[in-house]
Amino acid sequence: MSLNVIDLIKGQLGPALVSQAAAQFGESESGISKAIGGLLPAVVGGLANNSDNPGVLDAITNASSSGILGNLLGDSSNNSVISNLISTIFGDKLSGLVNSIATFAGISNNSSSSLLNLVTGATVGSIGKYAADNNLDQSGISSLLNDQKGIVSSLLPAGLSLASLNIGDWAKGYKFDNDDAIKTPVAEEPKVDVTRSTTSTETYVQGNNEGGGSIWKWLLPLLLLIAAGYFIWKQCEKKNTTTTTSTADSTNVTTDSTATVTSSDTTVTTVTKVDENIDLNGTALKGYKGGMEDQMISFLKSDGYKNAANDDALKDKWYDFDHVNFKIGSADQLEAGSEGQLQNLVAILKAFPDAKIKIGGYTDKTGDEAKNLKLSADRANFIKAWLGKQGVGAQVIAADGYGSKFATVDASASNDARAVDRKMAVRFAK
After folding, report:
1. Burial class (CB in 10 A: 0-12, 13-18, 19+), 241
2. What are the tens digits of pLDDT across the range 154-188?
3. pLDDT, tens digit (0-9, with 9 covering 90-100), for 275-317
4. At what angle do helices 29-49 and 15-25 cross, to 10 degrees?
5. If we measure between CA atoms, which residue out of 202, 233, 179 comes closest to residue 31?
6. What is the mean pLDDT of residues 92-100?
């Protein structure tokens, strides 16, 4: 029997890591566990589909010495090798995968994106370690990955299929659980078969089909109980909201050419926002109703961009990122959960290929202004470069840092109050 690489990985994604990830991302442990259960087979399938790709094989070969397994929650989200690898194996289907997992697990797109990085790091690191321990060259790694193609779909948790993950045509080569049932009519007493693996993570429940027809005596009540519990959980989940600090004027507008802010109300208030599905031409993006994605999509659908005569007609309207943040003092390390909203922006740009944008970076009024200008410019250019790696670089025509030029909160205010001025934003451009 071929080695199931899930056996190599499950020790890295056990209950301890699930608890840590839930605390770090602000999600429930059950949601994190469901997301990992869906992402793991997708990542293994993506690697298997690229088993002859030199870049993929190099990443796995070098992973054994990178130390990524020792700090999955820290390194994987900011590891450029992992980010590039994810782009390679999923391409333009990446945002669809992130959205599907977020919906399936009941978590935000930001958490889904961060978990994708984490699971990819755990997978690549585990396979790389196995290859090093067993003296496998790249040809051996390629064969190991190829062996996974026949079992990938069987590793998915109930309620999820490769087709539902929006990962495109490459999934067609994998066997689905109901393929045989579709092709072959029932001509005799059917055998009870279990096609789902129970080894993908430590959070899966081991099943047993021994007992023939008597299985329904206990299975049916159990399924009904699970269904009832899931319904109650979903109802409770609908009540959960995310609290975000923002200015009282939700349409705060800044300009490129002046230091004025059209909103005179700088009082910081607490606004309750609900993370929900935002429709992008039939694809659901996780975001706030009235948030960045919702406003940008509405503007594009209204032909506001198409009808804008020139850049001057667009330069006064900026859309603040709700979730994109950098680590303190850093211009090249995003905080966990930031890539989810950047992936949403990628999806929007790909849906509207004629649209052009500009990135802006901002700081509060504290510190040396020359350093603030450099930091904000470096951050804006980092996002511009990141978007370029996702295949939409031609649509990002500029990235500028404004330092504290448009900051509205006094330097003597509390750190929480000044947070409104430390932001990244995007506007349409021509």
Report:
1. exposed
2. 666 665 666 656 564 445 544 433 344 334 344 44
3. 788 999 888 888 888 889 999 999 999 999 999 999 999 999 9
4. 110
5. 233
6. 83
**In the predicted model, is pLDDT for residue 257 greater than 50?**
no
Please count the other Cβ atoms lying within 10 Å of the Cβ belonging to residue 78.
18
Quick: pLDDT tens for 32-72.
Answer: 988 888 888 888 888 888 888 888 898 888 876 666 666 66
**Residue 221 corresponds to which tokens in the numbers above?**
């009540």
CA separation for the pair 263, 256 (Å, rounded): 15
DSSP at 182: H
Measure CA 59 to chain center.
20
CA 88 to chain centre: 15
Q: Which residues contact 315 (CB under 8 A, 6 or more apart)?
A: 255, 256, 257, 427, 429
Query: Rounded to an integer, what distance in angstroms lies between the CA atom of residue 295 and that of residue 288?
Result: 10
Identity of the residue numbered 168: G
Position 299 scores a pLDDT of 94
Integer Cα distance of 397 and 384 in angstroms: 9
The helix (run of H) or strand (run of E) holding residue 24 is helix 15-25
Cβ atoms 100, 343 nearer than 8 A: no
| 3-state class (DSSP) for residue 203 | coil
